[in-house]
Amino acid sequence: MQPKVLICECNSAGLIDRSKLATICAGLKAAGVAFDTVPDLCGAAAARNASLKQYSGNGPVRIVACYPRAVKALFEFAGAPLSQTDAQILNLREVSGDEALSTLGVDAVAPQAPGEPALSAPANSWIPWFPVLDMARCTNCQQCLGFCLFGVYGLSEEGKVTVINPQGCKTNCPACARICPEAAIIFPKYASGAIAGAQITDETREKSRIQADMQQILGSDVYTALAQRRQKVRQRQLLRTDLLQAHQERREYLQRSRAMPPHENPPPPVSGV
Length: 273
Fold this sequence. Notes:
Elements: E1 4-8, H1 18-31, E2 36-38, H2 41-46, E3 61-65, H3 68-77, E4 87-91, H4 97-103, E5 132-133, H5 143-147, E6 153-155, E7 161-163, H6 175-178, E8 185-186, H7 203-218, H8 222-259
Parallel strand pairs: 1-2, 1-3, 3-4
Antiparallel strand pairs: 5-8, 6-7
């Protein structure tokens, strides 16, 4: 069976060299190998694009994108987990276009045109900067849940920490990943290293990096700082709940008002709304 091939263009961040993309596309076309492209795999995953499911558990697939840990986590987040045996991920951050083609079993050819510069995101559009979880490393300590002030994390029905609000993440802020005790949080659009999804080969060195980042972000008394952070998160959650309730009460009042005959006087709105 011919493997399905998907190429991420990384249009919103330009982390993949356009000349590499041009080389790969030219080689595949010359060899008559069918392939699909996605403007931005992070954006497709954030939207849980249903088309990603065709690469999940349906025979051999080749994903041409970035770090394998990041790509696997993105597909997991999108509800389209990749097969552990049938999926191969080619990391264009670290290999050349010719090397990628060789892995795909295709000869390199000269691209018909030089690679175009990375496309920028449209004005006022969301850049898909958000975290995904490496579930092979996550221990469900929920430290990220108590640290993030933007409501990015939540709990699943099974009580597992998960990303529930990717668009709530603060663009270019990887702080939660920097202090994750197990280095389980990945920001695919981060510049490099384990936070971007690179394979962790030295656990001791990575743990030392986490400890140093914790002290830089939280200070010397990490536990007290985390407790204070969790309190801020709870306060924001309570405020958000109060606002949502107030909006709901106002909507219900307006609906009742519209349903009443003109001669009746509706009751006043809820105090403080």
